[in-house]
Structure formats: structure tokens, C-alpha cells
Amino acid sequence: FDRYYSGNRRLQFEANAFFIDVRNMVQLRSNAGYYGNYNIGKAHLYGLESEVKWDINAQWYLSGNITWQKSVNKTKYIAGTNAPDASFNLQIPHIPILYANWMVDYRKENLFGGRGQYNRFYYEGSFTYQYYYGYKLSLHQNYEIPATFIHTLGAEYAILNRRWSVAVECNNVLDSKQLTNFNYPLPGRTFQIKLRWTSLKF
Fold first, then answer.
1. Residue 161 and residue 111: Cα distance in Å, rounded?
2. What angle (nearest 5°) sits at the alpha carbon of residue 34, between those of residues 71 and 189?
3. What is the pTM of this model?
4. I need a labelling partner for 13 at 20 to 30 A (CA). Which of 51, 65, 101, 130 fits?
5. C-alpha of 21 from chain center
6. pLDDT tens digit string along 42-51?
7. Is there a contact between 191 and 169 (Cβ–Cβ < 8 Å)?
8. Cβ–Cβ < 8 Å for 173, 153
9. 109-139, pLDDT tens digit by residue?
10. Among 61, 153, 188, 58, which Cα is nearest to 110's?
């Protein structure tokens, strides 16, 4: 769906379903701090995804996307043997199942008066539902990577028709705990500042 309205307004929406039959899927895994490639003989990947973008007017812009997916091991036997694979029909580790991202963006020229100025303020958010860094072979095993909400705030100010600009950003505003898909910690709240000069004309 893609529709234009008057006054620089536009609404876009897209939704998809997918199914992938994978043979010899190679996956990077971690074991006791060491990384190595692991071959999964057969796997099914399927899910739903959607995205929406909305230009409310020349200043305000909203967007968001969400994905639900399953990655299932369909290898019945351990390679080269007749022994059953204990992870058959289980969710493959290290792959998120449900995640979403969204953004609110405001842009305005000469917000504080004057000429040749450009201002931008934005908020970005993301959510990842709990998933696993190991096969869940037993109720007594806990390989869970907890769900996370991450929020980012940023602002940009430019002068001389965007020739010179400064941007500041705070990532993970609430200092939430983050883990990689290998269950290793990521940095908490961080700040960054960017100074830029360009010869391009806007």
C-alpha cells in the first residue's frame, strides 16, 4: 500500500509472509568462549513481517516494523549415523523470534529564526522478545536471552544551508541490560557527538 496525500503527506504499508527450506545451513556458534561454524543439515525458516511509514507533513515522520519468525531444525539424524538428533523440530538458537523497531522524526528549517538553518529531533526504539543461545532440550536448562527494550534520543543542528552541522545522540537512554545473540553483554547508556562539514548543496 502506497498513497500520497496533499501537503507532503504519504502513507506506506507493506506485509510479507515467507517460508524457506534450507539445506546445509552453516551457523556460527560459541562454546566455552570459542567460536566455530556448525552445519545444520536441514532447517525450515518461516514467518511474517510488516512495515509502515507515514509522512504526516513536511516536518513529522513516523515509521515502524515488526518481524515474527521461526527457525526450526529439521535434521532427524546426527550426520553420518542413524542416531536421532535430539534437537529435531526445536527452535535453532541465536536467532530472535520476535522483534520490532520504530521511530519518530521531526525536522524543521529555521526553527529558531534566521536563514539557512536546519533542525532535526528524533526518537528511536527497539524491542526484542526473549530467545535462546542454546537448544532447549529440557525444562531444567535455561539458555534464555531476556527480552529488551532500547530507546535512543538524538538531535541535529545545521547552519549555512547544512554545510556545517553538529549532532548529538544518547543510545540506550534507560541504561537497559543488553545481550548479544551469544549471551554476551553490550554497552549500557552511551553518548556521542558528531561534527560534520560538507561541500554538498541542499
1. 13
2. 75
3. 0.82
4. 130
5. 24
6. 999 999 999 9
7. yes
8. yes
9. 888 877 888 999 999 999 999 998 888 876 6
10. 58
Minimal CA–CA distance to 198: which of 156, 154, 152, 170? 156
Task: Flag whether pLDDT at 182 surpasses 90.
Answer: no
**Residues 181/182/187/192 CA torsion (nearest 10 deg):** -50
- What's the gap between Cα 194 and its chain centre? 23
- CATH number belonging to the domain at 2-197, selected among 1.20.58.340, 2.40.128.20, 3.30.420.10, 2.40.170.20: 2.40.170.20
What confidence tier does 102 reach under pLDDT thresholds 50, 70, 90? very high
Confirm if 70 and 46 have CB atoms less than 8 A apart: yes
| DSSP states of the chain | -EEEETTTEEEEEEEEEEEEEEEEEEEEEEETTEEEEEEEEEEEEEEEEEEEEEE-SSSEEEEEEEEEEEEEE---B-TTSSSBPTTTTSBPTTS-SEEEEEEEEEEEETTTSSSS-EEEEEEEEEEE--EESS---STT---EE--EEEEEEEEEEEETTTTEEEEEEEESTT----B-TTS-B---SEEEEEEEE-----
Please count the residues of the chain.
202
> 167: which strand partners?
156, 194
Please report, as a single letter, which amino acid is at residue 86: A
